[in-house]
Amino acid sequence: MLQVLLKDTISVKRGLSPITFIQFGTIRYRFHTNNRVKKTDERKLLLPLPPTYRRDRKDSHRLLSTRFTMPEISQRGFEMPASPIRKLAPLSDAAKARGTKVYHLNIGQPDLPSPRAALEAIRNIDRTTLEYSPSDGYRFYRENLTAYYRKYDIELKPEEIIVTAGGSEAVLYAFMACLNPGDEIIVPEPAYANYMAFAISAGAVIRTLPSTIESGFALPHIDDFEQLINERTKGILICNPNNPTGYVYTPQEMEQIRLLVLKYNLYLFSDEVYREFIYNDTPYISACHLKDVEEHVVLIDSVSKRYSECGIRIGALITRNRKVHDTVMKFCQARLSPPLIGQIAANASLQENGSYMQHNFDEYKSRRDFLIERLNRIPGVYSPMPQGAFYTLARLPIDDADRFCSWCLSDFSFEGQTIFMAPATGFYVTAGLGKNEVRIAYVLNKSDLEKALVVLEKALEAYPGRR
Ligand SMILES: Cc1ncc(COP(=O)(O)O)c(C=O)c1O
To answer: What is the pTM of this model?
Structure first.
């Protein structure tokens, strides 16, 4: 199959300029005008083939001919991974179209209501023009944010806060401002999958260090970090509390990271969008608390999770480093403005008294306790106790999590219901890791969570690839 496809491709390609990259499995081929096929890259690329390449032998010739009449998509676009959280969505849509009830355990979309003050503020918007806001966000909002951070012992000036379109934009601009193409950042894996996508956008390279389910996904040993550091290493990226593992870094681990940052003069990108949700006694140590690395730290933040406000697209990039700040601002100026209405809602959310946060905290904690206890009662299933955020990575008695998650949506239902989980492979970069793990988000009420767990247990009993 591979050879025939290549032959067809070459015959179509003859005489055209050498622009084509085609990937088969983990190997990418480059085509030259002399029609020699050159293997260029054996790195693992976590990509499905673009649809134009996914042809069977019969019609490959015709479809490839069509493709060659079109300009090529960018190599960067080709390398962008599909979201492991959303890629099974078509199967879920099909299950729903068949009338199956799908429990969404796949996505970190909080189900709890947004603060009433935010909804009121949107209802009462008293403006005649919905204008651009300043590129770094409204000053009144940034001033109010300083009071919010002070509650966590983080002293900031409004000039050190840049309002972004979600934490997502903050990660992207942090990378764009601090990293050159080819620069490396070290990230403990499993990791929030979009870091990989943003690194590709910036041309940066993510080097990962595996953490293991057996250790509850604790920070890998510091020597392992040092082994990865080379002249291209520019930073360390942590997510604390962690998505997807729920791990919260201990003061000792944060100190180790601090020493590494100092010793090798690195940036420390710290994504702390889940700081409100730390359920154990582990104290919250922000990267902004660390001494002597103040200018190395780029903090990523968002209101999406803390106020259940994913849709208003408000986040923040925080840096005490003026050069980084001014560079990030150039990207912000190019995109003009963070969302106006989102800032109004996020600002109003800051007035929310403690009872709103307390209620959400208690709810997630009680779901976590329930979920982990129930998961570990299912034969062959293991989940460590996550200390924060609202996810867990669980190990299942299965051959392949991607296959199992797809199978649950397309081939299985129990009493008209099924489950949508995120295969953990998408959160790892190292090939083969997470093959029997899934990420489960506890963003369903307890009653639905309970039903979803019954479905999971039944699915595991019925799954042909059970181990
Ligand atoms: C760890 C982490 N960082 C950043 C984000 C980005 O969130 P948003 O762009 O909605 O602020 C998410 C979203 O799930 C996340 O889990």
So the answer is: 0.85
